[in-house]
Structures are given as structure tokens and as C-alpha cells.
Amino acid sequence: MSDDNLLPFSFPAIHRKKITAGFDGGRISSDGGVMLLAQADRWLGVAERLARMIPDVRDPDRVTHLLPDILRARIFAIACGYEDADDLDRLRFDPALKLACGRLPDSGRDLCSQPTISRWENAPSLRDLIRLMGVMVDLYCASYTVPPAAVTLDIDDTVDVVHGHQQLSLFNAHYAERCFLPIHVYDTATSRPVGVLLRPGKTPSGIEVRGHLRRLVRRIRRHWPQTRITIRGDGHYGRPEVMEWCDENAIDFVFGLPGNAVLERLVDQAADDIRTRRALDQEPCLRGFAETSYQAKSWNTDRRACARIEATTKGLDIRFVVTSIETGSAEQIYQTLYCARGQAENLIKLHKAQLGSDRTSCRSPLANQMRLILHTAAYWLLLTVRDAIPKGHALATAEFNTIRLRLLKLGARVIETVSRVRLAFAAACPDATLIRHIAGALMPAGP
């Protein structure tokens, strides 16, 4: 049967000249910018690090695709916007992707196909995945040249709707969906991911959150024994078990705190003052801050609670946070420190929506966790490319979709000769200068 893609087709004529087209241009890739991802991978060594944690029991004499090359091809494909393993059935012949994975575009062997990818996504055991999660934390710590004096880690979960009866999926009444609720942890000051953990589709308990934080902090402490760590999260992470554990381990925290009649009574004087001043000045909105000492029945001690009080023409709105931090005003704690956690939700969107990490369609939770790790690795590569952009450039703070569109989705003719391989990009590429700069910035220092 003939391949219809090889047949020419037409477009409307321009200035009475006929326009014909065909997919017969030769070895041209639409993902020429994948070489920037290859530079980032060499810089971080993420594929090699992950591969070392997965036992490979294959006969070395019969191995066609090395495990680092398999992971590298999958991670590069995700970063380029191909979040499904099925896409590798076509991409395995792509000359630029082959070159990025260390194979010659013409004379080199083609990359692995989807069945090979799927087998290795399902291969890691629980112990292997624990080691792989440790690698991602190590990668985060290694991203700092020296241990920082302090870091603030944001913890949050996000809905991951399932399309079947995968293990760990549960019906969540809040979202009215059968789903997972994976936990994401980020250093939002630098946009760096610390960990992503698949978990059932229910709100985590205090004991569960405490266990996750204990393992995470223990791993970080191997690298940074003196760094001051602050944990930041919304109300359902401010559980008594979590706050007590933070107190015992010298970890600062700031969590959302659901309001109640006792809390509102404690800040009633400040709230009444703000409400009165707004009415007297006839302002549409007036905001103020207050703090108090508060102990819920389930808490083992009094804790500092800060309130944001907002009076409008529609009434009074009061929001609370609880914190172990003794310094700083209530306004600083709420407005500057706590509200900054909104950036974590933007980072989750980069991970889930722009890298497709919600494609957790495997039946086994172990395979789905492996997918989250691979998507986190792709996140690291795109973040490394973005960090190599000069700070004053418009793309220095761009989202991953924009980075992919401007820097990765580049048409390139790949030409292999006896002595070299050449990538010929379009002469009219609008970001040619920037791409040259990034390639140079990510070039290894050695020979």
C-alpha cells in the first residue's frame, strides 16, 4: 500500500504562480531545538542519574538500546510536547532527536519504540522509585552552587482526573471526579521542583503529610545540614501532627488556617476599627492586618495566628494563617510570605498542563509514579534552558509552551557527512542570536 504522505498537494496560487508542496524535503526535523535539551541534559546528567537507580538485568550482549538512551528519548519527547509514549513510534526516526540522544542521524541506529518505553515505565519496583525520588531531591540540592542560608518550600496537591479504574484512584466529592491528588513540592523562589508524589484522590491526613515531609527533609539535610527550611502550604497541610513535627525538627512553617468564631472574636477589635474607618472615609475597600495567639483543641501549644482583614461595601472578609515565625509584622507574614505561595500553583500548571504530566493512564501506580518522575526530568531540562536566557530578555520568564514554540520547534535540515554532522536552521529564524547564546552557555567546560 502506498503512503499518501509522499503525494504532492497544492495551495492557492500567488501572483498566478501555482504552489505545490510535498513531504519530500529529505532529512528535516521540526524539533531542531532539541539539541538545546541535549545540552541541558549533559549539564545536569539527569538521564544518567535516573538510569543508575533502575536495575537492568538484560544480557549486555543483546542490548540494543541502553537504559539512559531510552529514558533520554522519552524525556526529550515530553519536553518537545510529545507526552504520549506512542509518539516515539514516529519520533524514533527523527534525525534531530536521534542526534540529541547521541546517535548519528543517518548511519546511526533508530531510537527505541513505544513498547520498549512502556516496558521500562513499568519496570521499576517500589524501592527503585524511592531511589529515583531521592535522585530528584539530590538534583534540586545540586542546583545550588553553595548551600543556601534559607529556603522556602511550597507543598500543594492538584487534581489528576483518571479515565478508568487505575489503582489508587478514588472519587473526590470536591472535584466530582475519580482522580489522583499528587503532591507537588517546589522552591518557588527559583521555580525548581523538589518532588512530585502520586497519591490517592483524597485529602491527605496529618500523619501522611508528616511522613512525606520527614522523608523529604531528611534527604535535603544530607546536603544542607545548616540551611533554614520553611514549609508553606494551604489550610489542609496545617495539621497538628505536621506542626508538632516541624517544632521538633527546627523547621519553620506558615500554613493557611480556617477561620472560626474564636479567631474572629480575638481580632474583632482590629476588624471593627478597619470596618469603621472604611465607612467614615467612604472607600470601596480597606485592608488591614492583625495577629493573636491561638490554640485549637487539637494543638499542643499556643501558636501565632496572623489575620488579613478586608472591609468592603459588601461586608467583612477575614483570612488567617498560622506560623512558627516569631519575627516580622502580621502584614509581612501574610502579604509577603504566605501570599507568595500562589506562584506554586503556576509551577504546577507548567508541570501538569504544559508538560502533560496528568497522563497517568497506566493501571499500576508504580508506572504512573515513574511517569511523574520522567515529566519532572523534562521540567528540569526546560527550566535549565530558560535559566540560560539572559535576565533582561523577554523569554527569561516565559512559560514552557512559549519556550517550546520559540526555541525547540525549529525546522532544521540535518546533514551527515563523513567527518561531521551539520544542522541547518532557517536563515530567517527570529531567535537565532538567543539560540546561539544558550548553546554556548550550556556547553560543557571540558574538552
Keywords:
447 residues, alpha+beta, Transposase Inhibitor Protein From Tn5, Chain A, domain 1, 2 domains, eight-stranded mixed beta sheet, three-stranded antiparallel beta sheet, 16 helices, 21% strand, globular
Would you kindly provide a written description of the structure presented here, covering whatever features stand out?
With 447 residues, this protein is an alpha+beta fold. The protein has 2 domains: 187 residues, no CATH class; 227 residues, Alpha-Beta Complex (Transposase Inhibitor Protein From Tn5, Chain A, domain 1), CATH 3.90.350. The protein contains 16 helices and 16 strands. The strands form 4 sheets. Strands 9-8-4-10-11-14-13-12 form an 8-stranded mixed sheet, sandwiched between helices. It has a 3-stranded antiparallel sheet with strand order 3-15-16. Strand 13 and strand 14 form a beta hairpin. Helix 7 packs across helix 8 and helix 8 packs parallel to helix 9. The mean pLDDT is 93.
- The CATH architecture classification of the largest domain is Alpha-Beta Complex
Range of strand content? 15-25%
Taken from the alpha-carbon principal axes, the silhouette is globular
Q: Count of DSSP E strands?
A: 16
| Assigned CATH class of the largest domain | Alpha Beta
Strand order of the largest sheet: 9-8-4-10-11-14-13-12
Q: What composes the largest sheet?
A: 8 strands, mixed
Kindly report how far apart the N and C termini lie.
49 Å
Low-confidence stretches: none
Structural class: alpha+beta
Q: Multimeric state of these chains?
A: single chain
Helical amount: 25-40%
The DSSP helix count reads 16
Mean pLDDT: 93
Q: Tell me the CATH topology of the largest domain.
A: Transposase Inhibitor Protein From Tn5, Chain A, domain 1
Q: Compute the CA-based radius of gyration.
A: 26 Å
Count of folded domains: 2
